[in-house]
Design a protein that fits this description.
- The complex is a heterodimer of chains A (about 220) and B (about 400).
- By secondary structure, chain A is mainly α.
- Chain A has one domain.
- Chain A is about 80% helix and about 0% strand.
- Chain A has 9 helices and no strands.
- The two termini of chain A are about 30 Å apart.
- The mean pLDDT of chain A is about 90.
- With about 400 residues, chain B is of the alpha+beta class.
- In chain B, the strands form 7 sheets. A 5-stranded antiparallel beta sheet of chain B has the order 7-19-20-21-22. In chain B, strands 1-2-3-4 form a 4-stranded antiparallel beta sheet. Chain B has a 4-stranded antiparallel beta sheet with strand order 11-12-13-14, covered by helices on one side.
- The radius of gyration of chain B is 29 Å and the shape is flat.
- The chains are: A mainly alpha (about 220), B alpha+beta (about 400).
- At the A-B interface, helix 2, helix 5, helix 6, helix 7 and helix 8 of A face helix 1 and strand 8 of B.
Chain lengths: ~220, ~400
């Protein structure tokens, strides 16, 4: 049963996941090919100085990619479920309804997380070729909140789409949108270091939010 | 059970979000500017002059609140505003028996500031070591150093450690008694300076050192500190006066200069500086230095002479936002605020800030009453809504909105 659920979910989000994976890797490649180009054309120490002392962030183009990945994956996975209330079919499977939804969301979250891990590994491994670990450490602390916002966006998208009543969907969107702004409050590299754990805890709190929407759906809210 | 838990989780996240967003919106709409007064010391009048904008015109007031126009102010502060008097040809020939030479006035005119955000800011821990005695002007070094368990110079082009240079500087530091790792590393990592004085470091045993590169060779000097003094901040400068390398702030918040002539330190007679939440600036002239401490509730100034003896001091208070209408309404609406960014900190940090007064209790009680009324009106059980009621009681408007955005349907 688990394999079948995962297969069904993969049919919905497989192509979009691969598209974002390729897009993200291309963006990271673009970032580091630009760095390499600058290192060839200008003095390397000036690029380091720009990052270390002038507070330049060489990867800002990457900023909203995790957020968009999370949002689009959530859309791709749950909009087909709510069209013509197809989710009813899943909820009538011979297993606990909450378990079905948790497995669907779990699969999507693992997929999004896997894409982010690949992004991060490529970002770090390519970066360490040109920069010392001090620069990559602060760069990592800068991109972590962006990845967390992507995961939060995925969970909240599923929560909003599965909600049966439009009035509440709009309220959830407003509250969720406000929550997502918390991940983008500073443009300074490494500034989020003390906030990463609290933000990760908040993302964890949103991870089972779809259960609440499904609960309302099951109880006949229309 | 799980759906109910998921709702409570969502309530927590919504309260956190609203506790940041609503006060931010309120401040964006209604915030008022509180101008911290700009105050200068007049050597000739032995008085402080406060700048205020009155009906769009600059006005100056002395300590007795006597009003001066801009011309009168400039005449009262010939040393501070010597550029103006040079242009008009009204600079006195001498003051207090000292001949006023424009070039010397310019050299001795200094300004340095330190704000709390500099103390709490993310740092890379990579530093460029300039050639301090270059043949042809300052040039940016090809490498940067890190100083953890040892000192390592990393070549920027190849991103590899220059082992030979690293070993040479490691030996020089160890020879001078440096204990790794470094705690504070302070310098001026820029080409926008007239000369380079290298870096000032404190080691693992709170000792102070001066590190420079002179003709490609390491220059390391252990600098004795007054007994019992441990440093918290070193703020370097590039003054032409050549009087001191840096301002040192001790862990006891003492303010010192690190003098260039013999690496000695001189303490300012100031005991109420708190670098964690006050901005300090030091304005120097040929005759004195005025230290200004900007607090949330006011400004305090100390003027010292060339031998750092207190000449005069002055304090002005500014109204606190919490005592103004905007602050009173704020305290009524919000029982607390979740602060992420702060004027005292460059980091993003989840900091709950409680309201200045307890007036929010009234609104909390009203909102609690409305919630009870709505629960009864919808025919729900109060017993099953006890957590929602507690959320509203303790978090006020944030909880009230949260429990209605995420509804508690009792099926």
């Amino acid at each position: 049963m688990l394999r079948s659920i995962f297969y069904k979910e993969w049919i919905k989000i497989g192509k979009i996941t691969l598209l974002f994976l390729v897009l993200g890797i291309l963006i990271i490649a673009g970032i580091y090919l630009t760095v390499r180009h600058d290192l060839v054309l200008t003095d390397a120490e000036k690029i380091w100085d720009g990052i270390v002392n002038q507070r330049q962030i060489y990867f800002t183009i990457f900023k909203f990619l995790p957020l968009i990945t999370g949002l689009v994956t959530g859309f791709a996975q749950f909009v087909p479920e709510t069209t013509d209330k197809r989710i009813k079919l899943s909820l009538h499977l011979p297993m606990n309804e909450e378990e079905v939804v948790l497995k669907m969301v779990g699969f999507g979250a693992i997929t999004v997380l896997s894409v982010f891990i690949i992004f991060f590994l490529v970002f770090y491994a390519w970066g360490i070729v040109y920069f010392p670990y001090e620069i990559l450490k602060l760069a990592s602390l800068t991109v972590f909140p962006w990845f967390l916002s992507g995961l939060a966006a995925y969970f909240l998208t599923s929560f909003v789409i599965l909600e049966p009543i439009w009035k509440y969907r709009i309220l959830y969107m407003l509250a969720g949108g406000a929550f997502l702004t918390l991940f983008y409050k500073s443009n300074r590299a490494g500034a989020y270091q003390p906030a990463i754990v609290p933000l990760a805890a908040c993302v964890l709190l949103t991870s089972i939010s779809s259960l609440f929407s499904i609960y309302r759906f099951r109880k006949g809210e229309m | 059970m799980l759906p109910k838990i998921s709702r409570y989780f969502l309530l927590i996240v919504t309260v956190i979000t609203l506790a940041y967003v609503l006060p931010s919106i309120y401040n964006t709409l209604f915030d008022t500017r509180i101008n911290k007064p700009f105050i200068t010391y007049s050597q000739t009048k032995k008085d402080y002059f406060t700048y205020r904008n009155v009906d769009g015109k600059p006005k100056y007031f002395d300590r007795k609140n006597k009003e001066y126009n801009q011309y009168e102010y400039l005449d009262a502060t010939p040393i501070m505003n010597f550029h103006y008097h040079l242009g008009k040809g009204t600079l006195p020939d001498s003051f207090a028996g000292v001949k006023l030479i424009p070039q010397q006035l310019r050299m001795e005119s200094t300004f340095q500031f330190f704000e709390p955000q500099q103390l709490f800011a993310p740092a890379y821990g990579l530093y460029p070591l300039f050639e301090s005695r270059p043949e042809f002007g300052l040039a940016y070094p090809k490498d940067m150093f890190r100083i953890n368990r040892r000192i390592e110079f990393i070549d920027a082009k190849s991103n590899t450690i220059n082992e030979e240079k690293s070993r040479k500087y490691l030996e020089a530091l160890i020879k001078e008694g440096f204990h790794f790792p470094a705690r504070i590393v302070s310098g001026l990592p820029t080409l926008m300076k007239s000369k380079d004085e290298g870096w000032f470091l404190t080691d693992n045993q709170e000792q102070l050192f001066h590190l420079m590169m002179v003709k490609g060779e390491p220059y390391v000097k252990h600098i004795p500190l007054p007994a019992g003094v441990k440093l918290k901040i070193i703020e370097c400068n590039d003054f032409d006066s050549g009087e001191y390398f840096a301002i040192l702030i001790s862990t006891g918040n003492g303010i010192y200069t690190l003098n260039k002539r013999d690496y000695s330190t001189t303490r300012f007679p100031i005991d109420d500086y708190v670098p964690e939440n006050q901005t300090m600036n030091i304005m120097g002239t040929l005759f004195d230095k005025t230290v200004t401490l900007y607090r949330e509730d006011g400004v305090k100034l100390y003027t010292v002479d060339r031998s750092y003896k207190l000449v005069d001091q002055h304090e002005e208070l500014v109204p606190l936002k919490s005592t103004m209408t905007i602050g009173k309404v704020y305290s009524f609406l919000f029982p607390f605020q979740l602060s992420l960014d702060s004027p005292y900190n460059s980091f993003i940090r989840f900091t709950p800030v409680k309201a200045a007064t307890w007036s929010w209790i009234i609104l909390n009680i009203v909102l609690l009453g409305i919630t009870v009324w709505l629960i009864r009106k919808e025919g729900k059980s109060l017993k099953k809504s006890i957590i929602d009621l507690l959320v509203v009681a303790f978090t006020g408007i944030f909880g009230f909105l949260a429990v209605h955005i995420i509804p508690n349907k009792q099926y």
